[in-house]
Amino acid sequence: MPADIYDWIAQLKSDQWVLDVGSGPGSFPRAEFSCRWLALDDDARAFTTKVRYSRVAGKGHQLPVRDGSIDLLICHHSLEHLAPLDETLAEMARVLKPGGKCYISVPNGYSLCDAIYRLVYLGGGHVNRFRKDEVIRLVEQRLNVRLVGWHKLYSSFVYLRKLMALLDAPHPVLPRRMRIIGWFSRSAAGFAQRTLYVGTRLLDRWWRTDLSVYGWAFFFERIPAQPAVEQSGYLNVCLYCGTGQAAASATRSGWLSCRCRNCDRTYPYFRPFRNTL
Ligand SMILES: [Zn+2]
Question: What secondary structure does DSSP assign to the chain, as a single string?
Fold first, then answer.
């Protein structure tokens, strides 16, 4: 059975713990859970929305948690931001229970999507740059875990939309390059986002490239080694909030559109093609 982060969360019992490292406002806001949940972020301002879990401001390399107390570690789009990386991984290894699980999603640090992100946001806080095999080996060795499943994460280039929201703020204090981007109209940004979304998927379909791939989601467990399987990629990604879903489980709202499971808005739907599952 393929690993799924929502299943992993739902399976935890009421006395078990999730630690969401570099959580921002919370990694999976729509997840159903009965376990205990601690979200950690070094920016307390990230905790703006009303949530059902405990929150603490802190650093990934100084986790305020006892040894071997965490059943599921979540590091969702955050490991690329966390420094120092070695100490952060050592802390994650320390707090994970024997038999615990670990979910990590990171960008491909050499992808088109990440290149545009770094360009637009002047690095955007991505202090660690990963290749797929390197990050798997690193996490397996440092956390004493084994990869049991993984899938591709595709991009909706949602950060272009978020950039426009940032520039719309009353008195944005922004570097010069961002302000230049702000001269373009909002509709131009929306057009660029949609063009990248559809265009990269069409090129991938024709040329078997991975231009629309943002990164990967990895599922690790502290169990004896067994072969890891590639699972369905999150090919369909919301243009408005960036939440992804696999094509097979996407809620269709039309022949060429589907509905976001996070914000309920609709966006273009893609069937899996050659080099995606
Ligand atoms: Zn959405």
Answer: ----HHHHHHH--TT-EEEEET-TT-S-TT----SEEEEEES-GGG--S--SSEEEE--TTS--S-TT-EEEEEEES-GGG-SSHHHHHHHHHHHEEEEEEEEEEEEBTTSHHHHHHHHHTTTTT----B-HHHHHHHHHHHHT-EEEEEEEEE---HHHHHHHHHHTSSS----HHHHHHHTS-HHHHHHHHHHHHHHHHHHHHHH---TTEEEEEEEEESSS----EE---B-EE-TTT--EE-TTT-EEEETTEEE-TTT--EEE-----TT--
